[in-house]
Design brief:
The protein has about 80 residues and is an alpha+beta fold. It has 3 helices and 4 strands; from the N terminus they run ββαβααβ. It has a 4-stranded antiparallel β-sheet with strand order 2-1-4-3. A hairpin with a 5-residue loop joins strand 1 (about 1-5) and strand 2. Helix 2 runs antiparallel to helix 3.
C-alpha cells in the first residue's frame, strides 16, 4: 500500500494500492524519474476518469480536492 499526502499541509489523504499508484504514474506528468508529486484540479480529475481511473481512487482524490481550486499530492511507500 502507498499513502497519498496533501503536499502543502503534509496531511495524509488515504492509502492506495500498487495498481492505483501505477495508474497515477502512467497518467500524470513527472518532472524527473524520482518525482512523487502531482498537481490536481477538476479538469485533471476528469482526465483521470476518462482514462478509466478506478472509482475508489477518484473518490479519494475528489474528496481531497473538495472546496479547493487545486491541490498538489505526493505519494510515499
Amino acid at each position: 500500500m502507498y499513502t497519498l499526502f496533501d503536499n502543502d499541509s503534509d496531511q495524509p489523504l488515504g492509502q492506495i494500492s500498487e495498481a492505483q499508484l501505477q495508474f497515477l504514474t502512467d497518467s500524470m506528468v513527472e518532472e524527473s524519474d524520482d518525482d512523487q508529486d502531482y498537481y490536481l484540479d477538476e479538469p485533471t480529475l476528469d482526465y483521470l476518469a476518462d482514462r478509466g481511473g478506478d472509482a475508489e481512487l477518484l473518490g479519494l482524490l475528489r474528496a481531497a480536492l473538495a472546496g479547493r481550486k487545486h491541490l498538489t499530492i505526493r505519494w510515499q511507500a
